[in-house]
Write a structure and sequence with these properties.
The complex is a heterodimer of chains A (177) and B (192). With 177 residues, chain A is an alpha+beta fold. In chain A, 36% of the residues lie in helices and 22% in strands. In chain A, a hairpin with an 8-residue loop joins strand 3 and strand 4. In chain B, 27% of the residues are buried. Classes of the chains: A alpha+beta (177), B alpha+beta (192).
Chain lengths: 177, 192
């Protein structure tokens, strides 16, 4: 009954109103996208917010990390960096152990997980001994605990994620403002 | 779509969920609009809504462009373009807010009374409404701007929503029509 009432609302709309309904949905998605892109520009990182899967004891699973990646800030030992490794889809959050800088500004560094016994050379691409500036996604600047667990659950149960997204999308499309 | 329109609103008034304020307002708006366009020989003007459509389309265009550009030229390269797109998008959102609050101001129908001779500019009728959340008072305002003199007249009424829906939530078209016709003649009879 309720469902029919909803549809009746839509049926009374003309083409312009229906088009605006679509645009309204597009604007909600766009706002989220543009905030994300805006953060990218401000922080200089291609992924300014990441969810920690494991980096104990510094961060717990599900913590939300806020990253910046300014070129002019040098990388220092002790910092927590997020980096990509060739052949791995998910970036890694680990601490910088050793840094070598050259006069021309190029830098190479080695990382290690706080809870690991050995450094990360075993995790790097085959034959790679050091990380370079271009591997860095960002450096941790702040964190919010636990919130990211929602994302982790969503990704663990993709069907649940798509069901929630489809439900929300349908609601916005069908519901007249 | 066109088949549905064939059944007039008067014969088949909409049925709504009475506890949904939005649905009530939409149904009343649609009925007022229907009365204005069927009882008088007015022509609907879509200018106001078209303006909103254009603003929103441009805004969405910026975000689609940003998405495609960032995909073609991954981030550090696309920085400047991203910057421009993000700023433009939020400027457009600001323009949209300004447009709806300052220009549209709740106007849901613009009807033109075409000058019979086609020489003078048309008289413009605007209907605007508001219904506060959790409130049962539907405020309806009808304004007329004379094409010839450019002078405006208006009248305002407050309707109690429960008088315009039966217990099942079906709109009482006749009751709405009566109010609209009364308001319309109020405006027409007003002296400038």
């Amino acid at each position: 009954m309720l469902q029919l009432d909803f549809l009746d609302d839509l049926r009374r709309m003309n083409m312009r109103q229906l088009f605006y309904q679509l645009l309204n949905f597009a604007m909600i998605v766009s706002s989220a996208l543009m905030i994300w892109k805006g953060l990218m520009v401000v922080t200089g990182s291609e992924s300014p917010i990441v969810v920690v899967l494991s980096m104990e004891p510094a961060f717990q699973r599900g913590d939300l990390l806020f990253l910046t990646n300014y070129e002019q800030e040098p990388i220092r030992a002790g910092e927590i960096v997020v980096f990509k490794v060739e052949g791995r889809d998910i970036p890694i959050v680990h601490r910088v152990m050793k840094v070598h800088e050259k006069e021309d500004g190029s830098v190479k560094f080695l990382t290690k997980g706080d809870n690991n016994n050995v450094d990360d050379r075993g995790l790097y691409a085959n034959g790679q001994a050091w990380l370079n500036r271009k591997d860095v996604v960002g450096r941790a600047r702040g964190y919010v605990p636990f919130i990211g667990i929602v994302t982790i659950i969503m990704n663990d149960y993709p069907k649940f994620k798509y069901a929630v997204l489809a439900g929300l999308g349908l609601f916005v499309l069908v519901h007249r403002e | 779509m066109s088949k549905k329109v064939a059944v007039s609103m008067e014969e088949n008034p909409p049925k709504v969920n009475k506890w949904d304020g939005n649905a009530l307002k939409n149904a009343l708006d649609d009925a007022v609009k229907d009365v204005l366009l069927t009882q008088f020989s007015y022509v609907e003007s879509h200018k106001l809504l078209d303006g909103r459509l254009i603003i929103s389309s441009v805004a969405v265009g910026f975000s689609i462009f940003a998405l495609v550009w960032d995909w073609l030229y991954p981030f550090p390269q696309s920085r400047t373009v991203m910057c421009v797109c993000v700023v433009s998008y939020f400027v457009m959102m600001g323009v949209l807010t300004w447009y709806t609050t300052c220009l549209e101001r709740g106007i849901f129908c613009t009807a033109l009374n075409k000058d019979a001779a086609g020489i003078d500019p048309d008289d413009v009728w605007n209907a605007s409404s508001s219904l506060k959340r959790f409130d049962n008072k539907y405020h309806l305002r009808l304004t007329q701007r004379m094409g010839k003199s450019g002078k405006g007249k208006e009248a305002h009424t407050t309707l109690t929503v429960e008088n315009f829906f039966d217990e099942t939530g079906r709109l009482l078209y006749g009751a709405v029509a009566k109010e609209v016709l009364r308001l319309h003649s109020d405006v027409e009879n007003k002296k400038n």
